[in-house]
Amino acid sequence: MKEKIHPAYYDVKIVCGCGNIIETASTSKETSIAICSKCHPFFTGKHKLIDTAGRVERFQKRYAKKTTN
Length: 69
Hints:
Order of helices and strands: EEEHH
Oligomer: single chain
CATH topology: Rhinovirus 14, subunit 4
Radius of gyration: 21 Å
Strand content: 15-25%
Distance between the termini: 76 Å
Structural class: alpha+beta
Number of helices: 2
C-alpha cells in the first residue's frame, strides 16, 4: 500500500436525537443522527408519525374514503 494517501481514521461517538450513543470508527471526527435503531419504528415496533406542517393530516383529508348514503 502507498503511504500518506489514506485519510485519518478516528474512534468516534455517534449521538442520536434520542440520546443513544454508538461507538465506532470513522474518517470524520464527530457525527450526529436524527434517528437510530433504538428509536426507529421498524426496530421498536411502535408506530409514530413524524409530521411537519400537517402534511399527514392534509393527505388523510384529501384521500379519505367518502361514504355514500
